[in-house]
Amino acid sequence: MEHRQLGASGLRVPVLSFGTATFGGSGDFFKAWGTTQVEEATRMVNLCVEAGVNFFDTANVYSQGLAEEILGKAIKGLRAKVLISTKATFKMGEGPNDYGSSRLHLIKSVEESLQRLNTDYIDIYHLHGFDGNTPVEETLKTLDNLIQSGKVRYIACSNFSGWHLMKSLSVSERYGWSKYIAHQAYYSLLDREFEWELMPLGVDQNIGTIVWSPLASGRLAGKYRRNQPLPKDNRVQQGGGHGPALNEELLYKIIDALDETAAETGKSIAQVSLNWLLQRPTVANIIIGARNEEQLKQNLGAVGWNLTTDQVKKLDAASEITPVYPYWHQRQDLQLNPLPDFY
């Protein structure tokens, strides 16, 4: 298993991690993702570890804590061999302080996650989203204190805009506090907006990217086909989807290119989609999910080989869309705003 440095840190992570949003299945939204319980979760964790995937991603909001509990039981006896990432910020109760990135909520969230995971420390602690109500200084000072206490090893963020992340980095630098080393972001062949600002920021500031939903909520897993009904057993159709409204024309243009590339490589559409992401700048890790062991084995086959330069270019061309303002305007003068090398 290939390992990559995670941003401006000494931490090396496998290029694949296993996401546990499918664990538990509590509530209609997460039930659409999966209903994996402890016994099967333990088998899947062991499959991952055997394949060199020792990095597991979860969040307190996944099935309202149940996913963390199941992961904690599934890694019993393996804690020293695995990396755990979890998150906080989103709503975990009905009280006025049961959400956000305040000192009160973050400290409470860390303690509860540690208890559910049955561990003394969290390897990577993410803010699941940006809290525009809490002063950035309060949030970052709290996170730095959690690192100093030994309860958290590294901090990262998720779903930030460019100014959210840049402001946070600036405040951390100003006060000498720990910085975010990674940004967990929504990114796939079907959703490339991440490249317009957040990826150049990551290159400039050495922020590693951990990709979530790399198959666009299952749309790039091979079940969506041109001129065929949408699959009813897909997560999106069952009410567990993310992202903007589906652009079918773009999707099927991408799938046509994926079909050609899959035939050339002898790999599945999903494996090609994941491998394309591994060729992108700043990407250190891709979170793969699976409802069952067979899906997991298929996704593990995305590594150990690489698409050719021509194959990457073909997929780039098929998935390219016109950027929104101000990016289309900036591209009118490439002397002032040269495109990064990956374009």
Short structural description:
The protein is α/β, with parallel strands linked by helices. The chain contains twelve helices and ten strands. It is globular, with a radius of gyration of 20 Å.
Write a structural description.
The structure is a single chain. By secondary structure, the protein is an alpha/beta fold. The chain has a single domain, classed as TIM Barrel (Alpha-Beta Barrel), CATH 3.20.20.100. It is 37% helix and 15% strand. It contains twelve helices and ten strands. Helix 3 packs across helix 4 and helix 8 runs antiparallel to helix 11.
Defining key terms:
single chain, 343 residues, alpha/beta, TIM Barrel, 8-stranded parallel β-barrel, two-stranded antiparallel sheet, globular
Helix content: 25-40%
The major sheet is characterized as: 8 strands, parallel, barrel
Order of helices and strands: EEEHHEHEHEHEHEHEHHEHHH
Instruction: Provide the CATH top-level class.
Output: Alpha Beta
**Beta strand count:** 10
Question: Remind me, CATH topology?
Answer: TIM Barrel
Q: What is the count of helical runs?
A: 12
